[in-house]
Amino acid sequence: MSAALARCAAGDRAALQVIYDSEAARMIGVARRILFRQDLAEEAVHDAFVRIWQGASGFDPQRGTARGWLYAVVRNRALTIHRAEHRYDGADESALEEIDCEAAIVRLPETSALRNCLERIDRPRRDVVVLAYVHGMSHSELAARLKVPLGTVKSWVRRSLFSLQECMG
User: Do 7 and 76 belong to one domain?
Assistant: First the structure.
């Protein structure tokens, strides 16, 4: 993937097609989990590929993998669309109640290191990680949903991510 991204940075359109063919379907899945709508997920992936094409030269292999960079682009684009849609303003409380954090974890394979590490984290802290990184909720949205102070949510996210990092090695 790094080679295709480097070729993309050099203006090779065929390299962008290679990336699209290998990653677009999974990227739509990632965006759909954040946006809950197929049309918005497709828009996010389209926008992400425009950004990938324009910003491929900004990828630094010293800071992470090419695939990680690609998925960060699509995730960030999906979150931007999500916030623009005001998905979690007070009028949509029923959508918040339907989110099942445990279902997101159960969908992971039983042998998944991520699943095993998530299951080791206490329930409220695990939920903030799932809600933030699977469902795309901001810290303030999490605080409102969980009815805890914003600082508490930020602390839970930070500690949970540190625990996951240690667990995953």
Answer: yes
